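Task: complex structure prediction.
Instruction: return structure tokens for all chains below.
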Amino acid sequence: MAPSLLHPPSQLSHAAALQLSQQAPAVLRSSPSTVSASPLSALFSASESPELWTKYENLLLSCLRTGDERAAHQCLERLVARFGNDNERVMAFKGLLKEADAENNGQLELVLKEYDQILSDNDTNIPITKRRIALLRSLGRVSDAASSLVRLLEFSPTDAEAWSELAEIYLTQGLYAQAIYALEEVLILAPNAWNIHARLGEMQYMAATASGAGAGPYRKYLAEALKRFARSIELCDDYLRGYYGLKLVTSEVLGDSAGSTKQNGADEFSLPDPATIERLNELATAKLSEIVRHAAARDPGWCGYDELEVAAARELLTKDASALPGVVR
Amino acid sequence: MTWISKTITVFGGLLLAHACYSAQEHSALQSLRAATSTLTSSSPNTAALPVDIAIETVVATLVILLGLVLGTRPLRPIQWRVWAGKIEREGEEGFVDNEGEVNKDYVGNPFRMLEARPGFVDIRKQRREFAQWVKNGDSAGAGAQ
Amino acid sequence: MAQVPVQTIHRDPQLFYWILVPITIVMILTGVLRHYATVLMATAPKKLDQKTIREQRSLLHGINVRSNFHVLSKRSFTTRRDALTTAYESGAYLKDPERRGQAPPNPMSDPSSMEGMMGMMKNQMAMIIPNTLIMSWINAFFSGYVIMKLPFPLTIKFKSMLQAGVATKDMDPRWMSSISWYFLCIFGLQSVFNFLLGNDNAASQMAQQMGQMAPPTGQMFGPGVDPDKQFIAEVENLAVIEHYSVLDGVEQRLLEGITV
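Output:
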């Protein structure tokens, strides 16, 4: 199945990206090289569609990724011809191309300077701000990136993408509380995003199992992680990632049942009683094995799962099967 | 469309065509009779359509409807969780239309963007990873052949 | 039953070619012209400076917190509520904090809001001028003709609409005069414009009239609205929320709802 050019390519596998960029000559040939903005010619030529520009953008990204700079430059030229040099999005793409072309850190610093220059002229250019943050992070200056990101969010607190990036940056720095706060902001903006619920659960789980967490926060984090995973499953039937997390958390809680069962304050979530956790664990195990079985047999209607995720689930199940008799019975 | 629904639709179409033809014949006959019997002027209510033609029309319509309904794809889920589960479980294959192509407005998980974050893409890292993948893939491919 | 005798009026068939078709073509061309005139006259949305963006988006943020509070735990929600309330009340997000409490500037004197008004005026003009011109053109050349007969019967009420310019009392309302054809074109060409110009064209009058009836939601940040008052109102909205979380009892719901 050919990947569609209408979806952003950053989530594709390498093979799919390669396939996309190999389509580049055909796509570039089949679509008109310039679309004039003048109304007279638009009356007579085929009308442009937003899809065409999405296509160019995604093609640009795929080609850059696979190292096909010529096609990428062509895409950019067409975007510039249509939207002009001052369009914020086009500016960001130009910067992206320069970043990709840069050979050493010196050139990257130049690109960074250019971004600073653009931003000093117009400090509301959000695409360029994001590029600058991404470049800072790519150069390894993570704390700089974080502070710029905080400044961006200060004046634009409704940008879910930026909040999510901030959460990941904090996570790489090991600042779990801040990362969780940022991810909660994403959830406020997209309350039904099941993958963000699962991601938050994962972060809570990481925070709980990280060394240095005391007994109180440990249980608090685990409780909320369990609930987050449960919510992600509630939002999405047969969500592999949610069940995986649910199984991990419940196993962790059950293995640690020796710990204190004292309840947290009323403001916090508390763990459900052990019988419920036990049942949740069983449910997760059963569902996971069902998903793994169907996905392994490539049953029709079960082919959407990522192979790596299925493999990880299978591994968890086998590990669990070998460990379970020792723990429970 | 399966062959069952196709056959039913075609059959309904034939039935409908037959009903139309009958009605046409009937009206032609009526006008002929009216023309010949103007002198006697004793045609009380001959203009009405015979009831069997009417019934045939209705039945034909129902049969066509049945065939078309049988031939449609299953309806899209309208519950959030079912819809989301379908995206996760079936991927693109759950969203093909009658022509067997993936729907144009299918975007996969719309919230995946929040994790992929295209605005913050680290293009150099992606290029490095891709180059690495190509190198590994080549060696693996050479080994497999 | 007494059958109403069918009125027949013998018309010159040339009427059809020299009135009906020209009016239609002129109407379509005017629509296309209006579309492009609107596109050309449209000014790019004005760039907002950082302070303004911050003011608007902070308010939106508060609204988002208020409407989606249920994804948060109680503690996270209270933290956010406290932070937002303090910031809103102190006016930290305001564009120009020293102007707090003063009356909002008169929208007429504010140059930035004048631009919006000018845009509206331009749109109005683009609609009114061609309509007036065409109407007077039709009145001058084609008034007083009956040009066609509608294929369906109509009640007597339609007479004033369809037979404008033809003062004949007893005529069947199915007969149409040229000016009525013009009105019919105004309301009926929507789908033609959709076909020619795409869905979001500026040619159709219906869409513009709809737009006038329902004011756009962008009014929230429109001129003459005091952001400080909005912030204070949002503080009150946040204060009355009684918190609950979707995560309460989610395990029970899950265990009841999902069977393996």
